[in-house]
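Hi X.,

You mentioned you wanted examples for the new student's onboarding notes, showing what a folding record looks like when two proteins sit in one file. Here is a clean example. The first protein comes first, with its sequence line followed by its structure tokens.
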Amino acid sequence: MLSQRPLVVRIDRAALTHNLGVARRATLAAHPQARVLAVIKANAYGHGILRAAEALRNADGFAVLSLDEALALRHAGYSHPIVLLEGFFSGDELEAMAHAHLRPVIHREDQITLLARAALPHRLDVWLKIDTGMHRLGIPASRARAALAALQACASVASVTLMTHFAGADEPAIGVAAQQQVFSECTQGLALPVSLANSAALLRYPAVVGDWVRPGIMLYGASPFAGQTGSDLGLAAAMTLESRLIAVRRVARGEGLGYGHAFMAPQDMNIGIVACGYADGYPRHAPTGTPILVEGRETRTLGRVSMDMLCVDLTPCPNAHVGSPVTLWGGALPAERVAAAAGTIAYELFTALSARVPVEET
């Protein structure tokens, strides 16, 4: 018998398609020939990689993390260009990548050595990642030309696209100018396609769109910018996490609630117990006051989040009862607001959802 626990995550495929349209329009306004590489790594930010791929089928390509993700797309019939954002972890993966016509990102010089030694059934289109200041992955800018020459000399390489990743496109105090200058200087005169812009850069710095844009979080309806929601940017939330009240309790003034009595009732009050906890992916560190909707009315969480449950203040919802609907995020409650209250970002809320939460499509 299937579990009747009321927690469910609803994925709106039409919202994903809408958001791709927003990304496409922003791209074309900046560079009419630029293409859109939809980032669907991390199980499409928790939305389901094959579900998202279908909704984003009109993207010009997909970006994923692992060979397994890429092969799942190929096996599902997707012939789009597929970029592997961390490249390959072992030379043993190269033959499968060649057979599937995948495009690995090259970010270490030893990867070039492995490519040079490989005898592959097909030549690979590769992306060369240049570290312009993120200092995470990438060939140092000072060695980018030498790395490019080595790649172009590889018999197993068909073409090279140049890329970098911005550390502060979402931070006005940092921006992209410094990294863009480094990239421009080390690639000057090269007639190769480039990929620079993530969601934040696409929306805020259209001058750096390049030939391929790489929207991620915006495809799922969330804003990359602090203090803004996706709806502020014309995006539609693709994920809604919903549950119901499974108990209603009366707590007297001065009584403690939940583990550690982290919340003490300031007066007699009604408390609702929601079927959702940190084992479902709700942030354990979400404090008292994190926004939540009960019967469509905004209220707040109370005390510590438990493994399978959390508590809510029913003062603004006097008619709430066992079975009353609860929205943890999505719809009228932007995930960005919940994330901000919990000291995190919407990316983490989406990707942290547990596999035990059933998914429904709308």
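Then the second protein repeats the pattern, sequence line and then tokens:
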Amino acid sequence: MDNFINVLSQISFLVDAGLAILIWMVQLIIYPSFLYYSEENLYAWHQKYTSKIAVIVVPLMLFQLIFGLIISFYSPTINHFIYIGIVFFLWVFTLLSFAPLHFKISEGNVNNKLLTTLIHRNWIRTLLWSFLLIFHFITS
């Protein structure tokens, strides 16, 4: 069982790395670029962007959650509970804070304040996913 948990932990680390890289790209490139679109062009692009980014983000977040839960169940340590607690927070924060903002953009209700809010709030996810990667590396 220990070997299984070690392999799962290594795969989980790769998922964490993928999410950390992705969130930095979103934070530094994708979300700021929204400010340069006209409302009409952002509306059109956002429809394509959200469906395409979901193909990458959703599986990674699901794997992170599932692997974290399995590891925490079979190896219940404080580090694993901290890890899974942050993962749960990221899920809730994403669903309650980011989904509504993206729905507004998808409906064409966009302005600079909304886009700036998206960018500023995303720093929380960027820092937390970066912390998870570092935390995972240090505690493995």
